[in-house]
Amino acid sequence: MNQNQIKEKLLKIEDSPLEFSLIFSGKKSKKVNGVYKPGSREIILHNRNFQPDETGQNLLLYTAIHEYAHHLHACARGGTLSPRAHNSQFWAIFHDLLEKAQTKKIYTDVFSASPELLKLTEVIREKFIKNNGELVKEMGKHLLTAHDLCFKIGVRFEDYVDRMLRIPRAAANTAIKMFEYDVSPQVGADNGRFLAGIRNSDERKAAEAALIKGKSPDTVKVQVRGKEKEEDPKEVLEKEKARLERTIAALSKRLEEVMRELKGDDLW
């Protein structure tokens, strides 16, 4: 695949609101496979990092989609990227592009190429992720019982959690919510904690269904929370300027105090 062919594939996956360039560097990089420059809207791929065979070209396309996700993320922010480029909004865009690319048979899932990895994935999901979710949810059930017993003997449940169980109160409360909300153990303990934090029942069930269907946690979080509110770059600089001015003023004041003390006789 050449530069034009890859760009055509990216546009078939999803159209771009703003024009961009896709360039082969003709170099090999040990640090990164590609980079996106928001100022010039350039996707630069270090094409010599990839073999010319089918697997290598698929990985090249994977990198191109990753950098294209940065471009689309920048488009959504008016052409700029936040200092933290790999945030939930970015990963949601990237994972969505990969799904679309697979559906349109433009890109082949890299994980499906290894039967051994697919088999191991099922073991991890069933033996660890699901079991972990079941354990935390079951713990929530017993914690509720412990809560009632503490009330019965007139002691604080929080004190019991702190001194007897010696676990964070937040962890105990989350486990209880996982049980009360009947969160599916299939999503695992970590996703269960996220779901337990969603108060709206319909939103929680929709998020759970999306996770079970195969959506990534970042994709689901963005769907639930909506697009992240990202500050305007100018506002970020204005706030940094204000912080620096406050720091300079405080240091200048302290410097004056130190100089006065050095001139005085009370130190000797």
Task: Summarize the model shown.
With 268 residues, the chain is mainly α.
Key terms:
single chain, 268 residues, mainly alpha, Zincin-like, 3 domains, three-stranded mixed β-sheet, 10 helices, 3 strands, 64% helix, flat
Mean of residue pLDDT values: 91
> What class would the helix/strand composition place it in?
mainly alpha
Helical residue percent?
Answer: 55-70%
Q: Low-confidence spans: pLDDT under 50, at least 5 residues?
A: none
What does the radius of gyration come to?
26 Å
Proportion of residues in β-strands: under 5%
**Beta strand count:** 3
Secondary-structure element pattern, one letter each: HEEEHHHHHHHHH
- Spatial strand arrangement across the major sheet: 1-3-2
Question: What is the approximate shape?
Answer: flat
Number of discrete helical segments? 10
How many structural domains? Answer: 3
Q: Distance N terminus to C terminus?
A: 79 Å
Q: Please give the largest β-sheet.
A: 3 strands, mixed
Question: Can you tell me about this structure?
Answer:
Helix 2 crosses helix 3, helix 3 crosses helix 9 (217-225) and helix 8 runs antiparallel to helix 9 (217-225). This protein has a 3-stranded mixed sheet. It is 64% helix and 4% strand. The protein has 10 helices and 3 strands; from the N terminus they run H-E-E-E-H-H-H-H-H-H-H-H-H. The chain starts with a helix and ends in a 5-residue tail after the last helix. With 268 residues, the chain is mainly alpha-helical. The model has no long low-confidence stretch (mean pLDDT 91). It folds into 3 domains: 3-111, Metalloproteases ("zincins"), catalytic domain (Zincin-like, 2-Layer Sandwich); 114-225, no CATH class; 231-268. Strand 2 and strand 3 (42-45) form a beta hairpin.
